[in-house]
Design goal:
197 residues, mainly alpha
Length: 197
């Protein structure tokens, strides 16, 4: 699961941070396409089958849509309609998730004294504090309300269109197996092109 982090956050042990700040990049990572690739490529951890996102096998091998790859600065694709559509859908998803996690009727937003730090979110009272403890992304995604599904569908359609697969996505032709097959072909094509360079 991908979320925005304040620049003051120091990632550790199993938390990976990508030094990007654009909604297009975030949207692609939050899409079904990246999730499907990640589930197919991730490693297993421990005695159980706990899945582990590994940048070397998952992120570095993922075939981003042409022209929207992480090595391209966001300013270079800011006017690309595909990037704009993904960015809008990703920002909407993030806004909805944040509103559910920290609704204005349960928290007060207090600016930090130092510049560059995120606002502090302080429960308005003890009852609000108890409710906020239940409001985690895990609980949200386990409940999977219709508004969350709808926001993800809009994002997935935008990412599918960026790949040129919009019609197939809308027609329901992109099963997990088909997504993996297409992403693998893209991965192989790009690896072959890099080998020629």
């Amino acid at each position: 699961m991908f979320v925005w982090l304040p620049i003051s956050c120091l990632p550790g042990h199993k938390l990976y941070a990508f030094a990007k700040d654009d909604d297009t990049f975030m949207g692609i990572l939050c899409s079904t396409f990246h999730e499907t690739w990640a589930l197919g490529m991730c490693s297993k951890h421990g005695a159980g089958n706990d899945l582990r996102y590994t940048p070397s096998t998952t992120f570095e091998t993922y075939a981003f849509p042409e022209g929207l790859t992480p090595d391209i600065p966001a300013d270079d694709y800011v006017d690309d309609p595909r990037a704009e559509k993904i960015a809008q859908a990703a920002a909407a998803l993030n806004r909805l998730r944040e509103n559910w996690l920290n609704p204005p009727d349960l928290v007060n937003r207090v600016p930090e004294v130092g510049a560059g730090y995120a606002e502090r979110l302080i429960p308005i009272d003890n009852k609000a504090a108890r409710e906020l403890k239940k409001r985690t992304l895990t609980n949200l995604y386990n409940a999977r309300p219709a508004w969350l599904d709808h926001a993800h569908m809009k994002l997935d359609e935008a990412v599918a269109e960026a790949y040129g697969w919009g019609d197939d996505w809308r027609d329901g032709k992109l099963t997990d197996e088909e997504i993996l097959a297409r992403l693998f072909r893209l991965n192989q094509e790009r690896a072959a092109e890099q080998g020629k360079a």
